[in-house]
Amino acid sequence: MNHRLPHIVFLLTALLFAACASIGSPDGGRYDEEPPVVVNSMPLNRAVMSNRKKITIYFDEYIKLENPSEKVIVSPPQVEMPNIRAVDKRVRIDLYDSLQANTTYTIDFSDAITDNNEGNPMGLYTFTFATGETIDTMEVSGSVLNARDLEPIKGILVGLHRADSTFTDSTFRTRPFLRVGRTNGSGRFTIKGVAPGRYRAFALKDMDGNYAYTQKSEQLAFDTTAFEVSKRPDLRPDTVWTDSIHYEKIRMVPYIHYYPDDLCLMAFLEDGQERHLLKSERLTPEKFTLYFTAPHDSLPIIEGLGFDSSKLFCEANPGRDTLTYWIPDTTIAHNDTLRFNLTYFDTDSLGTLVLRTDSLHELVPKQPHAKLERERQKKSEEWKKDREKREKKTKEPLPYEANPYEEFYAEASIKPGGTLEPNQNLSFLFSEPLARIDTTRISFRQRVDSNFVDRPFLFLPDDDNNHRYTLYAEWEPSATYELRADSLTFQTIFGHPVQSIKQSIRVRSLDEFGTLFLRFSNLDLQPSDTAYVELLNKSDTPIRKQAIVQSRADFFYLKPDAYYMRLFIDRNGNGTWDTGNYDEQRQPEEVFYFPKPLHVRAKWEVEQAWDVRGIDRIRQKPETITKQKPDKERTIKNRNAERENQGKKK
Hints:
Elements lengths: L4 H19 L14 E5 L11 E6 L3 E3 L2 H4 L1 E3 L7 E5 L2 E5 L9 E7 L2 E3 L9 E6 L7 E9 L10 E6 L8 H4 L4 E4 L5 E7 L3 E7 L15 E3 L4 E2 L1 E12 L5 E13 L3 E5 L9 E8 L2 E6 L8 E4 L8 E4 L5 E5 L3 H4 L4 E10 L5 E11 L5 H26 L17 E4 L3 E2 L5 E5 L3 E4 L4 E7 L2 E4 L3 E5 L2 E8 L7 E6 L4 E3 L8 E7 L6 E8 L8 E7 L5 E6 L4 E7 L2 E10 L20 E3 L4 E3 L4 E7 L27 H11 L1
Parallel strand pairs: 10-19, 28-37, 38-45
Antiparallel strand pairs: 1-2, 2-6, 3-8, 4-7, 5-6, 7-9, 10-13, 11-12, 11-14, 14-15, 14-16, 17-18, 20-21, 21-24, 22-25, 23-24, 25-26, 27-29, 29-34, 30-36, 31-32, 31-35, 33-34, 35-37, 38-41, 39-40, 39-42, 42-43, 42-44
């Protein structure tokens, strides 16, 4: 026995080592690829005559519940948020609202339930019970898009109201939805547990949790047409896979098709949002800015405390919700603290615009005047040294270039760098508002052969913005122009002159551009309507806009590129897209997208017909410029099949 003991110890050690090694081996046991399975619930799924407000669903393994506040939706909607949580092998739901009589309740988990270890999704799962004797099984589905750009809207609530004798336009404002669903990353929604009948659909970005439209800040959509829910048997294809790559066959599976399944709601924010002073700031001594949550036609009243506020110079951004006040008087600007009373229109608790006064408004510059001047002087010297180095390297004077840090000078930048398209004009941007322009000191000439000939021009501010000006002229393709302005031509509100300008401008040749001819059909315009088409870049940003006349629009001087197109129907003739209004039952102005990019090449003429309503709007916007992408589909990982394929390759 004593002689056998070392051999036994050796064998036990070897077996233990082998067992430990097999645990870490890449060829170990199979991964769990089975999703969780419901084994029981209290009450039972699809139970009737149930009044339990505490629900427990049991599974065959430990589970996780991901983002229940976003993915799980209870219908009818619960005013008091239910408590939904995962505990070991079960999901617990506590409902706090009173249960309605003879009502079907659905708890739609979407794909929120996964197993705890491998993250295998259970798939779309809905728990249903009824307080009455029958379960309502009808469904309604569709999509919600942003009315302005047809972007799918994720996470917005979609609800139903019965279209019967009790329904009025105020129902959406005063009563919560009967049934509710929520959109996914594709803007799609499904509302389950719907009883037979006629309904109207609404969408709502619910800010206060009451499932009714009660705030202007809530995004909404509404359908003025009532619909009847219905169903019929149908078939759909189902793919049978042999592994993660190969499929065996496609079979047709019977199912119940619920209608309507193609609702399309256009969501918008109404005009007249609540107005409040968001913040005020004074980054530099010479100016301060007021930021409001919404615009107003009237400017605030500023009562200076210790200074004359009439000397302030106000500029508004295009949306008129950001106001910048310049302080031309240096004795005021150099004060460390600026004190004033501010009176402005503000929205009260009843949603009414009223005058409000903020007494003793104080602003201190983030950069004191002395420190700012030292920094400007330092940067100006650095700029001069850099220019001298570049001139020494090129061995010739550089073309006009403004010093943005020069003391007592304002910056002037010319875009787009001295080269223009034939339909463009020359833009100037000044770092300070201009108080005076002497156009007699501006020389604008065209080069003809070896001589320069004076040409007419206009020099005007852009939309009342005294920072940006545009030089308008008749530009000839392939021509060269010269612009000159001495240092006394411009003067800012601070009395600062602008550096002299000498700029050579070349206009591009026609051979560098293409042309796009568009022909439209199915516009469905009323006599008072106008339609506009916008050319968009790859960021979905408009770069050209043109009215459609006699069902056509032509775009000349297009640089070679891929262009996208958006069209809107201008119902009120103001030339811009307008949002909707629920109280007036007015929908937002219609928007359409051409479903693919158009490629324009130099010296090419592209003709394109566009049937505006030929494709449903949910499928119009090209995927390449759609910012809201679909949710990533959660599937079983199939890691066992991947392992087997890797083994076969070896």
